[in-house]
Amino acid sequence: MKFKTTYFSILKITILLFVVSGTSVAQQISYYQNQEYNPFYKTVYQPGNNFHTSVQPFRIDKINAIANVDSLIYDGIRKPSGDLNFWRRIFKDHLLKWEDKDISIRVNPLFDFEVGNEMDESLQTWTNTRGLFIEGNIGKYFYFYTDFLENQAVFPNYYNDFVFERKVVPGQGKTRSKGERTHDYGQSTGFISFNPIKWFNVQLGQGKNFIGDGYRSLLLSDNSYSYPYLKFSAEFKKVHYMVMWGQHRDLFNIDPADESRDMRYPTKYSASHYLTVNIGKRWSVGLFESVVWAAQDAAGDRNFDWAYMNPFIFYRPVEYSIGSPDNITMGANIKYLVGQHNVLYGQFVMGEFKSDEVFSGNKWWANKQGFQLGMKCFNLFGINNLYFQAEYNQVRPYTYSHRETISNYAHYNQELAHPLGANFREGVSFLRYKYKRWHFNLEFMAAMKGKDFSDEVSYGGNIFLDNDTRPNEYGNTIGQGLKTNLQYLDGNISYMINPRNNFNIALGARYRKESNDVETQNTQMVWFAVRTSLKNLYRDF
User: Fold this and answer.
1) Where does the signal peptide begin and end (predicted)?
2) What digits encode the pLDDT tens for the residues 431-458?
3) Whose CA is closest to 269, among 6, 527, 473, 472?
4) 327-350 tens-digit pLDDT
5) Where are the alpha helices (DSSP H) in 173-260?
6) Domain segments of the chain as ranges
7) Distance from C-alpha of 450 to C-alpha of 458, rounded to nearest angstrom
8) By CB distance 3.0 to 4.6 Å, which of 376, 436, 460, 506 could disulfide with 494?
9) Which region, left, alpha or beta, applies to residue 129 given φ > 0 means left and ψ of -120 to 50 means alpha?
10) Of 363, 420, 422, 417, which Cα lies nearest the Cα of 398?
């Protein structure tokens, strides 16, 4: 049965619930997903708010229940009042807005006009992004969001190397390269959201999801390109449960001779569960599991597997019952609120677990585990809006990979979790300060990763390589392969013009150094941008 059939079957059930349901309020989803400019973080991480912070994007109706959303968006900035003409809307509010008794539609521009200079080679970089997003409520039950972007760009060297290796722009889809430098790419996302009853929500769309409280996520992140998904969420007091089915593509598993043809990329599917519980006013614990399988495996044309449709079942027994061990990823998320403005958080991820191998100390290759530890301070030293975050991530070799490469934990040639894949240790920290319209941001990241220097042998860092090509059964340690050190430093200052769509002007400098026994690559650049900063675009890899 194809995934399209699954979509329509469940959509019929959703419409039936919609028809027979009682009164409710439309569950608007936040489009503020950029961690540097998200206006809601400080509020949702307050003791006693009972907010499920590890499920992102956030729901606006839940935020509105604990604070005034407009006040958070215009924090320190005078909110516009009265009738606004076209030019005032560009700089102060929604560009276009239509509000009636049962309908509300808002339209805003998206853009990123950036110029830079990579000083080592006097390379001129630039980005030219234009787009639009439309969101709104229709009646009491229905919310929708859609956007589209058209882009052309010249990237710095390390970023350009990634695009040619992976065939995609990080997080933004496939590129149509024009020569060795200029790239042309586009993307669109969108979803519809139903809440047929107060505690239940259904989303159907194409986009990204994030599970966790950190800057990175070892469970599910917004690192890769958008993907089609169907998501059910239920929330009752301190409990939030999510089940999601997704469709993913693999650009590597294609015949190079066919790249010029109009063809579909190989397909795989995922099914994910996430249960999170708030304990008291400060603790939160979440459990996650996800399974990935190829639409066409070694046994033939498999397509969507109905065995994974049950939203209340553990996946490991299911995969064995159908005679095809798929790629299972399991993990946990934990959070503790310290005082009024501090957060401790962490994650644990696991791909395989054999207790005798884990505790033997022999470093078996399939000990696929990783963890995250971090902290956030929203009012550091008692200074309002002075934010500090420090985070450590570590993932063992071969985590997220699989013996069938198409079944790895990835989408569109990028990792669905951490952008460094596996076989790494990383520390990342941020210092940010906001005063009215001014934003100051400083980031430092240092990592050590074991890179794979051959397509024939996998040392566990590249999750797109076959597990079975490993050189050793035991003695596998983080950093094996080509040990590579990475440092990344970015500082910028920006001025917020319109907080409705995060329209800002920014000036910054970036430093990156990647070194190993084979080569050293340095990037030193300055940049200037006029942009709308709504979504995360990761450059620190």
Assistant:
1) 1-26
2) 999 999 999 999 999 999 999 988 889 9
3) 6
4) 889 999 999 999 999 999 999 999
5) none
6) 3-194+208-227+343-532
7) 10
8) 506
9) beta
10) 422
